[in-house]
Amino acid sequence: MLLRALYLLLSLILVPFPTYLFSQPQQVIIIGYAEVDNTYNLSPTGIQRASLLPNYFSSLTSQGFTLPNVIFAAKASVQVSGPAALQTATPTSKSIKQPINTYSADDAAGLVSKLLTNPTYNNKSVLIVWDLAKINSLIAAFGYVPPPGPSQTCSALTYVLSTLPAVGSPSPTVLNQNLLPGDVSCGGVTPPTPPTPDLVYGYLPITIYNGTTSAVVNGVEQPITDSQIYILVQTNAGANVLQFTADASGRMLGSQITTVPTPGNAASYYSSFYSYALSSFPSTVDNFYTLYIPSNLIQIGSRIYFSLINPINWLVNPNTNTITSMDDSFSTTDNTYYTLYDKVEYTVTLVTNAITPFWQLVMNSTMVDYYCLPLSFYINYQANSLPTTSYTGLSPSFSRQDVFSTYQNTLATLPGSGANTWSTLYTSYIPIGGSSVNLRIASANSGALKPTENTPLFPNNYLTANPNSTCQWFTSLWTNNSPPPAAYYNASGANNTITLDLSNAGANSGTATGQVDGSGNFVFNINSGRWAGGVVTFQPPQTIAPFFSGSYTDYVNPTNNAPLWSITAPATTDTIKAVWQIFSCAFSVGLLPPPTTIGTPTNPLTKAWLQSQVANYFGSNTNLCTGPWFNFYSQVLHQGLVETPYLYYYTAPYDDFLGIDGTITVDDTQVSNSAANVNITLGDMTNSTIPNILSDSTIYNVSFSLYPPGVTTVTFNGATVPTSGGPMGTASGSSMTMTIQYNTGTYSTSPPTTFTTQISPTTGTLSPILPGGANIVLSGNNLTVYIGAAPP
Length: 792
Known about the structure:
This protein is an alpha+beta fold. Strands 7, 10, 11, 12, 13, 14, 15, 18, 19, 21, 22, 32 and 33 form a 13-stranded mixed beta sheet that branches. Strand 28 and strand 29 form a beta hairpin.
């Protein structure tokens, strides 16, 4: 595949050896030999460590690492005259029943070349037991940046290289084996084993691990404490939230409440009021905290939100008791745009169509909207009466910075100017006098659908008039022009058709055969089944949005939202949904058009065929010109950042249709799966900067406009703002506090509620947002506040 070849060429530049790459080990684990005597044979302590290593490597699998299945050990040398490395590897070799390959520690480049050029090691987990003094040289030979630390004197450290070949000079993950007394002094991260949670009938235990390590907060790299991580659990699409109260044993049990703000208590009108610091939940092992969600209560479309440093401050509507502006992470006028937060999705339902009704949990790790935080989880449960552990989310061995770096580096491999298009999804913030701060990577779906400052992140004309491509997908596949170039499905072009199997819509749904007619419409005739004789018609697309969302309801004219599709009976909206789902999903993974043997009347394009092609997803399509004409965002997450056992996760709305969603379903949570438990890791944030939009020492001249309808009692830094507005003096950008009350509309209360917010001049936002909002206009050092009217 062209993209893969370009990726490998880039890696060739970054890795210090000249041979073309044919092999990509899944991971490389490097350790030094265990403790030795003066002849470089293992000492009694070293023998003890070596004997503990097999179980140690097995324990790492619960943290997302892979058990080694290939072993190399350094040969005895002038510097290390004894067989210490070989002796250290022997117990693990016997445990996994794999031989030990020996190699000279003086030839790190040779070993790296062997592993990255020999197909034997492709997708293998390689353990290397090496000379302690030469570990950093070996790490560097792989293209990684050797970490500082006592590698030459500590036998307790494990170095994991998760991306091979290396891209962007990453740092290895450094783990502490923590097998013997004194190991902790060597440093490194010790992935602990999650505690076994108590079982409480009617509840599902969720254990959260703070694996953030550290982040840059206010310019200083420092630990993110458990009190700086906030949890908000929304249920039923934001209509409810969970509150947590301690039972007699101190376990925090969730219960669903209707959100009812209290007049006079401004805090209760924000989602932060229903957020909990991670430290609020009980902990029996360092950095692990357990909460309990109801397992016998309907919770559809629910989310567990995680935010760092600040809780999420969405408004609560007191009329509907719902949290509004939910997940509005693309509006730069909302202060949550600058808050680092992400989520895990779940649904709890009662399955009633079984012989015996049962409660069911469905849970997934989603990046359908964006990627922001390193979240992953696994569930221990029973499946077919067997103990099972299912994993989803990006592996916790990838730090947040790894994800952003991988996206940027993979952008560079795109042909032509493709990077100029897909780089728009990479959002950042540049504070005053500071360098760029990574916020999130928007999904292709969000980039096309959710506007930032009224403009989609992703260009609407990506398929039809993409300035970053030398050719157009629309011309190659759809256009009404006569060849050349050939119009792949046009009646006056190449005269091909495509036949889709519609069984994704249920039994007796038949097939649909499509071709572009003389007016430029893609017309699908339903050949058989319950909709036989019906017609589904798509006018030429005007945006990329429906191709990434997979929803025909997004197939509209962006100027007036008018549908660009039509149906003829007996076809229904279910018909067009079925047609568009398989058509757009094939596009999103680069398999539209499919090979000439697929998509014919006798061999229609089916969901089953798509799912059989996972290994061929996100490749260049030889039937099309250079693109990429697929979901590049999904490609990076599904191919550049996949690691066993964390193989699948949502990156697009129909990843389930494509078989790569990673959804975990647990049946009968009240009886056979009453011991099921969820383990979520909030992963490594090292080198990630937490934005602080309120850090601004600039002095501004501040003025207010006149009061709008329904607004009363406005103050600025304690001084009353006249109803007619006017100048309010000067203030530092870090200390602009505004209060407001409303005397009409939704937020007019008795007693009056005083809403307090802080103004961020450079971002033009309020923290938190006011019910009526405000427009912050900055011209040089002159700042004017236009207060929003009271909401009706």
